[in-house]
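PROTOCOL LOG
Step 1. Enter all chains and additional molecules of the complex.
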Amino acid sequence: MTADRTPPRLGEKLPTATVGPFAPDQLARYAEASGDSNPLHLDAAFARGFGFPARPVHGMRLLAAFEPLLADWRPDLAAIDLRGQFLTPVLEGESAVLTARVAKIENDANGFIAVVRLMAQTEKGAPALMGEARLRPRGKF
Amino acid sequence: MTAPLDRVGPLRVSTPAESVRAFRRETGWRDADGPPPASYPVVFMRMPEIGEPIRRAAQEIGLPVHEAQHFEYARPVEIDAEYDVTMELRRESDPPRLVSIAEVCDLSGAFVARVTTTLRLIDPATVARLAPKAPS
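Step 2. Run joint prediction.
Step 3. Record the structure below.
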């Protein structure tokens, strides 16, 4: 873990993390904490009615899971931008594998911005989420 | 991009410590105590004044499915603080989507963050080809 304000190395890979498997009560607790009570994530019969074999995990749950990963890697950096596109659904009972890599280092008057590409994959290796975080040293917004 | 379907706000929102703790706990943080994560402002979307226009607009087509999310910050959202949120809702077609753009400002009116939520609207008639196949 680095605790300074030097830019990360271009191409550096963050430690891979696995989240899940997601139990139904975890989906319900995330829905409660986030306020996203779309029945697709909470009602198995509703999800089946839309062709899903099981309740899909909230896409936001996966995007949010990158934040502790980023904070563990570089606690001296903070996200000024975080984005994700939700692709293949991760279903209840399944896990997702999170990977991230430093794709670019930008510089401006406030210092550097590390651009980190984010990817989550389903257990079967399908892309569940592709995203990006832009990180600055804390206090340099 | 078409003209906005709806504009909402400003609405007063807050970041109570217990809500932030619950969000951190359920999104995998080792320590539930800490500042609001960058993704925390999705919680603001739970307000009926924001959620109801989205639900109403989505209902005309079908099921809203979260397709993309974007958070942009001028400075961090702080814990136990109040903010004003304004939200603009736009519709895209082909494929049908709703795009909600929420701006978070502090109580002096200074811009803090922009939260863009993209929802794909799923017509029930198309679900057979969109949903994943059941495992065999």
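Step 4. Note key features.
The longest helix of chain A spans residues 59-73.
The mean pLDDT of chain A is 94.
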